[in-house]
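Lab notebook, page 48
Experiment: co-folding of the full assembly
Goal: obtain a model of how the components sit together before planning crosslinking
Operator: M.T.
Materials (sequences as entered):
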Amino acid sequence: NAGVTQTPKFQVLKTGQSMTLQCAQDMNHNSMYWYRQDPGMGLRLIYYSASEGTTDKGEVPNGYNVSRLNKREFSLRLESAAPSQTSVYFCASSRDTSYGYTFGSGTRLTVV
Amino acid sequence: AQSVTQLDSQVPVFEEAPVELRCNYSSSVSVYLFWYVQYPNQGLQLLLKYLSGSTLVESINGFEAEFNKSQTSFHLRKPSVHISDTAEYFCAVSAHNNDMRFGAGTRLTVKP
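Observation: model returned without errors.
Model output:
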């Protein structure tokens, strides 16, 4: 049982380039999330999807877009990368908030 | 919105000593509380959670946390730590919705 799978694991972008971070879960969870992790700031919610076909902004959505392609997949897109988006990005999923979240292993993104 | 404050960014401790990682939360509604652990280069893993009922909750590896409503705290404790407990620990709060907020993290270092 793979859980939550994120690709790629590492990426270096030049300022202004675009890219999509992929996330897939095989636990039949309804809700999926994208967080970014920065030193001393913990994890901050970028976007979430409570169910297939719906997406909502989190705490720090600016500069990002998301797509809930189907129940399994939730992608995060950076249209024009900026150095401030250098971070570690985590995807997570949950059956229900009371169960807690299952996290992927992260994507380390550097924007130069 | 709810918020979490982890009072210590780093906690060094010797092996077999007790440890307490402190967490305070703020919310105007009832909440679920969680502790997650993150080992180097990995995603977060759920350690334990408080939903309702008994205010003392335990994990399978000897950690426990106590929900204190009057002090709005959810401190994590372990009576005797091991080298393998070295990791970063995150406290999180959710107001029964899809907006789980995380603290900045506490880096626990267990020294021999």
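Interpretation: The interface with chain A takes residues 4, 6, 9, 32, 34, 36, 41-46, 49, 51, 90, 94, 96-105 of chain B (CB under 8 Å).
Next step: discuss with group before ordering constructs.
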